[in-house]
Amino acid sequence: MEQITVKSIVQSPVAQVWELWTKPEHITKWNFASEDWHCPSAENDLKVGGKLKSRMEAKDGSFGFDFEATYNQIVDYKKIVYTIADSRKVTTDFRDLDGSTEVITIFDAETTNPIEMQREGWQAILDNFKTYTETR
User: Fold this and answer.
1) How is the beta sheet containing 89-96 ordered, strand by strand?
2) What CA–CA distances, in Å, run from 61 to 36, 42, 67?
3) Cα–Cα distance between 67 and 132 in angstroms, integer?
4) What is the reported pTM?
5) Which of 19, 66, 108, 125 is deepest in the core (most CB within 10 A)?
6) DSSP 110
7) Residues pairing with 41 in the sheet
8) Tens digit of pLDDT for each residue in 86-131?
9) What confidence category does residue 1 fall into, taking pLDDT thresholds of 50, 70 and 90?
10) Domains in the chain and their CATH numbers?
C-alpha cells in the first residue's frame, strides 16, 4: 500500500499545537479541506483504544461523510498513530523546533481517488490547521 506524506511548520509551541490538534472544540474549527466545507461535530477519546470521530460536510448540504479511527499509540506532544475504520494507518509526528512545531502526517493511500488528490486534500486540512493555530 502506498503511503502519502504531508507536513507543515506551525509557528506555535508544541503544547499549543497538541491542544488545538486534539480537542474537539478546536477540531471543528479546522478539520476541512476548503472554505465550502465544514466540520460540524467531533469527538476525541485520546487514549490507546479510544476513538476519533468527526463529521465533514459541504456547507450547502450536498455531500458529507463520517470519519472514524481508533488510536494505536499516543506519545504526548510527540506522536499519534491511529487506524481509520477502513483499516488504513495514519501517523502524525509533532517535532518541537524551539517555539514552532513541525507537523508531519504519513497515511496509507486509499484506492478510490488519485494519489495527488488525496495528498492535496490532506495537505489542505493541515494548512487549515496551521492558519487556525497561527491566527488565534
Assistant:
1) 3-10, 101-108, 89-96, 79-84, 64-75, 51-58, 37-44
2) 10, 18, 17
3) 21
4) 0.97
5) 125
6) P
7) 55
8) 999 999 999 999 999 999 999 999 999 999 999 999 999 999 999 9
9) confident
10) 3-134 (3.30.530.20)
